[in-house]
Amino acid sequence: xxxxxxxxxxxxxxxxxxxxxxxxxxxxxxxxxxxxxxxxxxxxxxxxxxxxxxxxxxxxxxxxxxxxxxxxxxxxxxxxxxxxxxxxxxxxxxxxxxxxxxxxxxxxxxxxxxxxxxxxxxxxxxxxxxxxxxxxxxxxxxxxxxxxxxxxxxxxxxxxxxxxxxxxxxxxxxxxxxxxxxxxxxxxxxxxxxxxxxxxxxxxxxxxxxxxxxxxxxxxxxxxxxxxxxxxxxxxxxxxxxxxxxxxxxxxxxxxxxxxxxxxxxxxxxxxxxxxxxxxxxxxxxxxxxxxxxxxxxxxxxxxxxxxxxxxxxxxxxxxxxxxxx
Length: 326
Fold this sequence. Notes:
Helices cover 44% and strands 16% of the residues.
């Protein structure tokens, strides 16, 4: 990786991957691609950036050529719950955008990272120790787009030798960015509510167990996979990775160890509950561990302690600075 483009650089993953890659490779070597939403001023000031709709193939190719990009982290997408509300738009962005990225990579010789998800599985998938290679029949447009994306990346690798790589992310937890329309968003919202209100109303049942990961581990996984020796990668795309599995009542109990007065109630959202019920409880990530040395650093207690500490500092800083005037 010498010159890097990040699409969706203002999203949950992109806004944290961007500073990390700039720290490692130098700010001028990492181009941030934003869509219409105005990013945080700190992101704008931290290095080169552009505004692009990934469905615009000509503009995408122009940018890649102009900046001599050799690696694309393609993160622009509509997430699970939001995608169900706008399925045609989700397909347009998630698949047509990816097709443009892959075709640009083929023509201009770029490597591509594509994030898949536990949403790529469905009710017929074994829910416990979900194998790397197993049945994938998702029941959401988000899941369908992720399976299609996995297959497209495999096709471009086999047919055109495009260096495509990717992982299946579990739910991601971050103190830096707000939730973005995902089914696992409760695991981010609960921390904000615990620190600001002392109470959280959860939209999933208390016993809904799902795979989760703290954002520092997710960043490590992306970078480590893209740096891995290609000769060791038997799968290349859509590696299962996970760090911890828990339910809303389990994370609430862990938070209560630090904030004893915190309370939680439940008001189930049928749409997001149905999505969650179709996903694995725990994925088998042994292939990622064997092929490129995947190993998470955070478990549930470690994540909760760090998340509460970092988020409390961030909220205190925001409060002292007042509302953003930019």
